[in-house]
Amino acid sequence: MSCRIVGLIGGTGNLGRGLALRWAKASLNILIGSRYREKASTIAKEITDKIGREVKGSTNEEVAKVSDVIVLTIPFEGMKNIIESISQHLNGKIVISTIVSPIFSQKSAGEILRGLIPRTTYLASAFHNISYKALLDLEKEVECDVPVCGDGEAKKIALELAEKIPGVRAFDCGPIEYSKIIENFTHLLIYMNKKYKRKSISFKFTGI
Predict the structure, then answer these.
(1) pTM score of the predicted model
(2) CA-CA-CA-CA torsion sign (13, 60, 35, 24)
(3) CATH number at residue 71
């Protein structure tokens, strides 16, 4: 992973900022993308100042163009438009989706995304259940297991990225079709955090 550039599309949101912070702290080469270059640059500078390692920000399209691994930290509602704007840069690349579909959607965001990106793109689905608040707190490890679904090569990279975060374990959980199970569980975690007035309820697999 050390020679790859990891670009976060929509990386100025809460999850994008958290992942960027943890991966930059782990000495990965990180780019933050946004529709607005200035916004991306501002968040990148905040992370740079916090950890002392340079993170850069630019537009989503520019980040997609130069990155080897592209992590989508964008809302489901904006997925189609954003993918259309960067799809020309996805051929042969690894794309990791953190997107969660609406709870009553017939297909997962991962399955829908598969139909939007080039056939030559390697796709994985991961990081749906990880708390951004836990990611942003560098004083503590992140107590969370991360299920990963998708294509072989993309899963391999997603597993490696997950385990760059202290406290996280990652597991191969099958093809992209299984992403629906994981995405739906995310809705349950959101409910539980609200119900029990917590900030980072997640889950762990036992017996493995």
Answers:
(1) 0.96
(2) positive
(3) 3.40.50.720
